[in-house]
Specification:
It is built from two helices and no strands. The chain has 41 residues and is an all-alpha fold.
């Protein structure tokens, strides 16, 4: 598997998105993280 480095602002934006989606619907933040992981890998 390749190793990736992400800009700190990109990490912060993704974290905020996870919080936002989780506030909209329980479990949606987790699904968002999984979608990001699937896309990167």
């Amino acid at each position: 598997m390749k190793s990736f480095l992400f800009h700190p602002e990109a990490i912060a934006e993704a974290s905020e998105a996870v919080k936002f989606y989780e506030e909209q619907q329980e479990g949606l933040g987790t699904r968002f993280v999984q979608a990001l992981t699937d896309t990167i890998n």
